[in-house]
Amino acid sequence: MNVAALIAQAARSFPDATAISWIDRPLWTYAELAARAGALAGGLRHLGFQPGDRIIIAMSNHPTFYETLLGAWFAGLTPSPQNCRLHPAEIGYAADDCAARACFSTPDLTEHLRDHLPAGCALIDVDSSAYARLFGHGVLGIEPRAPEDPALLFYTGGTTSKPKAAIHTNRTLTTMIVSFLADSGTTVDDHLLHLAPLSHASGFLGLAYLARGRNNVILPTGALDAVTLGLALAAFPPLSFFAVPTVVCRLMEPSLLDPSLILQIRRIFFGGAPMYVEDLKQALEVFGPDRLWHLYGQGESPNTITYMPPRLYGEVNAPNYQARLASVGIARSGVLLRVAREDGAEAAPGEIGEVLVQGDTLMSGYWNRPEATAEALRDGWLHTGDLGSMDECGFLTLVDRSKDMIISGGSNIYPREIEEVLLTHPDVAECAVIGAPDREWGEIPIAFVVAPQRRPAPEDLDALCLGQLARYKRPKIYRFLDDLPKSPYGKILKRELRDLIATETTS
């Protein structure tokens, strides 16, 4: 059960269909993509690579991403895609951690990586003659692999420790693809545009489109501009794409996305960070409910925990519709979902607990991290570390990561509910709430606010919070910043805000 067989089948069924395009230009058909992947696999075998060997894929968005990924799978290897926005030392750490034998890179990253890779890890630029020479050693058929064999290592962000590699097997990835095909319906009969890094959610979604024989349209990393976006949308309509919520908000600006081009969009899959209700309401007005598809997943269960499809956004007369806007939807096909109390018992509807997930989409464990694996996978359930509640109809609402919860005077405070209120202020563009140590209360909430046009008075923000929240939940301090620190994936880095507060209190 080699996951590459799904794409090989598409190549047999749709050999002349376009598989990969670059902006507005078709590059390879499915027959050509499969032949190149097989030839690359032949070159890797010629160099002595054996099934199970690990490789790093460190690329900005580039047409060869899927070619390299599929070539590795054809040869039975275990690739580990890395976000191109990571520091070279972070990519070098991953290469050393998994004992990678090679790192395939794009020209913009090659020289930066050269001094950070461990001994024994060859650096191969995909635009180099060394890469081209790999294609001269015959075409290799797909290496047979067992369902439980590792097929991909996905390094999760190291917020409290070094990153850990979630092991995804052939079964994991195949189930992820099938679940998406089951839940997305006819959306996958169109084409997929890659605005976001191929190393993460966008690239995972692309596997389903490849399995269906559709076109993956790749944009250069960082090329989110009106001209490039317009070219792609005009060339291959209708297009769907994945975007983090911050990008969805940017796409509502007419200067970036001409309103006339909205008709060329089939679906916007969004996730990877909180989508606040005020932003979602605006997106529903701009794009309409038929184009929005919320997904919630983790590196340990990529893209595949819950979803909120367009038909549920369109049920405006459904009970608790407003509350559902704050949710991440319902369980995905093939996934079991529950919310548990601290003692492991089932939480009552509306009661907050830890989100637990079960199904064949889960990682098999962390690479060389038995203790972390035992902590995350208990009794057959993935303990996500996310806190949330589920209503009677199975809609899951996330409140925060467990580590982000604030305990003030013995009471639990969930930063997201404060953030949702602050974002209703017309001058607040972004905000993040953290807990800061306090001698009297244990912790107090502090709000970091971005207000680029006009800075609201703290007393106005206080009044806003007191109108909707208990008094003990309102922030005790408001700090105004030009920008919030974010990860390469667009997530707000609350640990950096905590570090800022810690530095100030100790200096």
The CATH class of the largest domain is identified as Alpha Beta
Largest sheet, in brief, is: 9 strands, mixed
Question: What is the number of strand segments?
Answer: 26
Strand content bin: 25-35%
What is the distance, rounded to the nearest whole angstrom, between the alpha carbons of the first and last residues?
A: 57 Å
CATH architecture of the largest domain: 3-Layer(aba) Sandwich
Total helical elements = 17
Helix content: 25-40%
What would you give as the CATH superfamily of the largest domain? Answer: ANL, N-terminal domain
Which structural class is indicated by helix and strand composition? alpha/beta
Question: How many structural domains?
Answer: 2
The name CATH uses for the topology of the largest domain is Rossmann fold
**Spatial order of the strands forming the largest sheet:** 2-1-10-9-11-12-13-14-15
What is the general shape?
globular
